[in-house]
Each structure stands twice: as C-alpha cells, then as structure tokens.
Input
Amino acid sequence: MSFNFPSRRSVLTGTAAMGAGTVMHMASAEEPVIGQKGATIIGPRNPEREHQNPDILRPPATDHGTVPNLRFSFSDAHMKIRDGGWSREVTQRELPISTTMAGVNMRLKSGAVRELHWHKQAEWAFMLAGRARITAVDNDGHNFIADVGEGDLWYFPAGIPHSIQGLRNDGCEFLLAFPDGEFSEDSTFAITDLFAHTDREALSKNLGFTERDLDRIPEKELFIFQSEVPPPLEHNAVADERGPVPETMVFRLMEQPPDNSPGGRVRIADTRNFLISTDVAAAHVEIDPGHMREIHWHPNADEWQYYISGAARMTVFAAEGNARTFDYRAGDVGYVPMSMSHFIENIGSEPVRFLELFKASRFTDVSLAQWMALTPPDLIAAHLKIERDVLDKLRKEKQPVV
Output
C-alpha cells in the first residue's frame, strides 16, 4: 500500500478547513520544536516516515514517560511470495508488546489455495477484498463449506483442519488473527508437509492406498499454490450423512445493524452473536472526520487493532504519569494493554475504519464519560474541581464515537 506524501505548502492548504488546531498540529510536525524547546533536525532524516508519524516527531505536551512502542505496519513486514499469492505477518517478534494476538495479511489470486492445514491456535478472519471459498471438518466429522466476501468473518477453532481458496474476479485479500502473540504461519500443520514427512507404508496402510498411488505427492509444504477456480458452491460440497457443523463458522458482520453514534458506527462480533468464536471478540469501528472513539479502556483483555482506512492518532494513558501518542494509517497494527485508557481520533478527511480484537469471548469496555455520569457528582467535583452544572451535562449512556 503506498501513500503520496504532501509538501509543507499542500499540508497547510489542505488542512485549512479542518480548524486552526489541526493546521498547527500538521504543519508544525515537520520539526521537533515546541515553542522555545527542541531544535531543528540538521542531520540525516526520513521525511516520509515523519509525515506518517507527526506525533512521534513532535509529541503532544501531555505525552510523558516510557510507554513502549504500540505500532507496527504490515508495510514493514516480511513478504512471503508464492505462485498463487503472498502472505505477511505481524507477531510478537515484530511488535514485542503484542503478547496476546498475532496477525497475518494474505492475498490469493483466483483459484489459488492456502493449502489444507490446521493450527494450535484458533483462526479468526476478516475479508478485506474479493471473495473466497473456505472449507473445514470438525472433530465429530461434520464438514463445512461457504463462500465469503468483503466484510465477512470466519472462525476455525484450534486444531480444526481447513482451507481457503480465491474465487473469480481476482481472488481475495484478508486478515487472519490468532490469540497468541508468538503465533507464526511457519508453525502451521500442513497436509503436504504431513505427507512429505510420514512413512509411505504407514500412509498407504492408513488411507487404503497403494504406495504407488503416493508417487507424486509433493516433497515439501506448498503453503500457497495456484489451482483452478472451483465450481459453484452447490457442485463443490461433499455430502455428509452427519450433517453440517452445529455452529456456523461464518459471520456476515457488515450485514449487522451498527450501534450508531454521532459521527461513527460500531459493529460487535463475539459469543453473543457469533457463537463459535470463543477465543476472539471483535469490534468493527468507523469514525467520521472530526470525531473520535471515546476515552475508554478494556477490563478483560489487551486490544489488538488493524487499520483498514483513513488517518488516525491514538493516545494511551498507562498510569504512573505515563502516556504516549501514535499515528496510524491503513495496514497498520496498533496495540493497547489491558485496562490502559485510550482514545482514537480521526485526523484525516475520510472515515477511519479499524478492527478492535481481543483474546476473549466477550467484547467489554468502560466509558470514562459514563463512569463519571453514574458517580455522585459531589465526589467527581471534589476530585476534579469541575462545577456541578458542567458535570450535569455528562451522558449516562455509552457513546462509542463522539
């Protein structure tokens, strides 16, 4: 994914309509100077990276302390290129703070297959573009097959074998998430790898084949390979006397009515509506220009983020006087440790769309505004020295985007 980075003049002109505060923020981000503090950079520099991360170059005055890095871009991840597509991953290796979740971004051309495989961890997925066909068989012998498109989710429990194949019109691209920061695609159990490293005589006895039937099996894992586009779904499914899986492995997230706020929308997928997804809870968030995801925190799990579109900045408060601000673009990964308060602000001219993922069965968050509104106002006033008539304006209902 590429970006056209603006000149100083275009930044000042293009942001004029967004308010004086935004203009000052964007324009002054070119040098680490705040009033009389700091100094210009006169040594080597990377202006493209600085334009993407103005709050790293010139942090807000409220930033303080030693909050670890909470951002990594898939653009900086190693690309594994194969005949039928590519794959890249962001794990704890790339983002050390990310102990509970790892992500894989994958592209399959039409007909290309992410080969039959399984993982120690559950697999949660979000379709970014195109269409794919997925298959699986559970431990009771129930099979599953479905076509998925942009905005759809799927979920395969740990150890359940499955496959993904790109369909017509240029295949697909998707995000995979695994509830383990140390996960890596390299540790996947693949059917070709299994066959290549299992005795031929044992394979033939187990499957009822002759050893000659196995003469052409691959010598190593295929991972991603090019194949023919599969026939229509009704002609591709294998009849199963046991019937389908008891819980669907697909969820049409974008068909769900959103939780609307002024300036944004949130759709949640967890065990309340996607029953099989016991290890990963998720929210799809949209923030319109000029709005922000309210100040909040998550009491039950760390938050792993994937940014789909737009330009955002996030400030995280980590207690003990520590806070840090980061900037995000499409393809970036963000991370917030459990119970650290944070907000995400749209600083661009198009909607920000991103995913919030949690190693949990339920999505939960605590709203700063709601907490204050439902606490005796005299107690709040005693802490913050805010007048009672001002506190009366606080909303008692959560408003995810404000």
